[in-house]
Specification:
Blueprint: E1 26-28, H1 30-35, E2 44-53, E3 58-62, E4 75-80, E5 91-97, H2 119-129, E6 138-139, E7 145-157, E8 164-165, E9 171-173, E10 185-199, H3 203-208, H4 224-236, H5 242-252, E11 264-268, E12 273-274, E13 290-296, H6 304-321, H7 332-349, E14 354-357, E15 361-365, H8 373-387
Parallel strand pairs: 1-2, 4-10, 4-12, 6-14, 11-13
Antiparallel strand pairs: 2-3, 2-7, 3-4, 5-13, 7-10, 8-9, 14-15
Length: 393
C-alpha cells in the first residue's frame, strides 16, 4: 500500500504607494501563478477563478482550464485573520515550528489585508459553506456549490513547498500554505465581485447511494476527543494486516485526551483564515520540535464524518512525521492518496455502505463485486485527485 510516492525602494516614506494610494492590482491567471509563484509574491493581484471548498481544500482553480500541468494546480485561499467567515475546508492541517524548534527560523513579514465584507462577499461565503446532504452515504466535506468570481487580494508564495529535512530525517524547514503546507501560492482575500455560483452535480452519487444510511454508531459524536477515541477503537477492530497497521499508526499520533506532549494540537473552527501566528514560532513544545495543528469545521463534520476526518488527518501527520524510506519528499498527490486509502478502508470495514468524496465521487459501494472493489476504488481515487483536487504526480 505504501508507495514511493513542500527593491521595493522607500522614498520619503511612500514605499510602494503613491501619495497614500494603494498600488493597482495586477491581473493574473491561476496557471500563471502556479507556473511561477515567486514572480507575484507580496503583490496585490486580481484573479478570475473558480473557488472550491472541499474536505481539506479551500482553493482557486482556473475558471476555464483548471489543469495547469503542475503538481499543485490551484491557489490556496484564505480570509484575513478575524473575518469569521462560514466557508473554508472541512478540515486542515497546518505545520509550524514548535516553541522548542531547534533549527533556524524567521517568521515572514507581510502587509496587512483588510477584507471588504460587501454583499458580494457575504453571498460568496454563504454559497461555499452550504453542504450537500442527499444520499445515504458519508460524503466527506462535500459542498453544494463552487463559485466563479473576480478575486482581489495579497498573493503570498514560496519557491519550494518541500518540508526540508536534515540527515536524520528531522524537519528543519517549512513549505508553503494550506493543508500540509503543500500549496506554493496563497491569496489572502481583499474583495470579491462578479459572483456566479454553480451547483455541483451529485445526481450520479445520489442515485448510487440511495437507501437508509448504515454507519458505525461508535463514531456518532460531536466531540473531537470522542471522535479520536472512536477512530482509535475502529482501527483496533480491523483485521490484522496493512490496513489495520496504517489506521493504528494514523490514530496513535493524537495520544489520549489530556496529553500535551504529542505535538499534535486539535481545534474547532472554519480553517479559512491567514493567521500570522500560524507562520510564527509556536507557543508549545513538541517531541520533534514541530507542531501539527489540526482544525475541524464542526458545521461540516459531525458524527461518523468527524471520526473519518480525524483518521484522515492522522494519516497525514503519521506519514509526514515518520515517512517510509523514499517518501520523505512525497508530493501532495501521494500524501492525499494514502490518506484517502486509509479513510476509505476504515469506512468499508466499519459497516459503511457507501463513502463519497467532494464532487460526488463514490469511492466505496458495498454493492460492488468483491473482485472489482480494489480496482474501482483505485480508479475513482485517481480521477478525484487529478480532476477534483487538481493534484498530480
Amino acid at each position: 500500500m505504501r508507495r514511493v510516492l513542500i527593491l521595493a525602494s522607500i522614498i520619503l516614506g511612500f514605499g510602494s504607494t503613491l501619495y497614500g494610494q494603494a498600488a493597482a492590482p495586477v491581473d493574473v491567471k491561476v496557471c500563471d501563478v502556479v507556473k511561477n509563484p515567486q514572480a507575484f509574491n507580496g503583490q496585490t493581484v486580481r484573479i478570475k477563478g473558480t473557488v472550491m471548498a472541499g474536505f481539506d481544500e479551500f482553493a482557486i482553480k482556473d475558471a476555464t482550464d483548471p489543469n495547469c500541468g503542475y503538481p499543485v494546480n490551484v491557489i490556496w485561499l484564505d480570509y484575513p485573520a478575524g473575518t469569521k467567515g462560514k466557508a473554508g475546508p472541512a478540515a486542515v492541517l497546518v505545520i509550524q515550528p514548535a516553541r522548542n524548534f531547534a533549527g533556524k527560523f524567521t517568521a515572514p513579514t507581510r502587509a496587512a489585508v483588510t477584507l471588504d465584507k460587501s454583499k458580494d462577499f457575504k453571498q460568496f461565503d454563504s454559497l461555499l459553506a452550504q453542504r450537500h446532504e442527499k444520499g445515504a452515504d458519508i460524503c466527506l466535506g462535500c459542498t453544494r456549490y463552487e463559485v466563479t468570481a473576480t478575486l482581489v487580494g495579497r498573493l503570498d508564495s514560496v519557491a519550494d513547498t518541500t518540508l526540508a529535512r536534515d540527515a536524520s530525517g528531522k524537519i528543519v524547514g517549512f513549505g508553503g500554505f494550506g493543508n500540509m503546507n503543500a500549496y506554493p501560492a496563497r491569496l489572502v482575500l481583499e474583495s470579491v465581485s462578479d459572483v456566479t455560483p454553480k451547483e455541483i452535480d451529485y445526481s450520479k452519487n445520489d442515485n448510487e447511494t440511495k437507501g437508509d444510511p448504515v454507519g458505525d454508531p461508535i463514531g456518532a459524536s460531536f466531540d473531537l476527543w470522542a471522535a479520536v477515541s472512536a477512530a482509535q477503537g475502529g482501527a483496533g477492530r480491523l483485521a490484522p494486516g496493512p490496513p489495520r497497521d496504517a489506521a493504528t499508526k494514523a490514530t496513535t499520533v493524537f495520544g489520549k485526551q489530556g496529553e500535551h506532549a504529542t505535538g499534535v494540537f486539535l481545534d474547532y473552527g472554519p480553517g479559512d483564515e491567514a493567521s500570522p501566528k500560524d507562520e510564527e514560532l509556536g507557543t508549545k513544545d513538541s517531541p520533534d520540535g514541530v507542531a501539527f495543528n489540526c482544525t475541524f469545521n464542526s458545521d461540516r463534520l459531525q458524527g461518523d464524518s468527524l471520526t473519518k476526518a480525524v483518521l484522515h488527518m492522522g494519516e497525514h501527520i503519521a506519514e509526514i512525521r515518520n515517512p517510509a524510506p523514499g517518501n520523505e519528499t512525497a508530493p501532495a498527490y501521494i500524501l492525499e492518496s494514502d490518506a484517502w486509502v486509509v479513510t476509505t478502508v476504515a469506512a468499508a470495514t466499519g459497516r459503511q455502505r457507501f463513502f463519497s468524496l467532494p464532487g460526488g465521487y463514490v469511492i466505496w459501494d458495498y454493492n460492488w463485486p468483491v473482485a472489482d472493489r480494489n480496482a474501482k476504488m483505485a480508479s475513482v481515487l485517481k480521477d478525484f485527485l487529478l480532476n477534483e483536487a487538481l493534484l498530480s504526480q
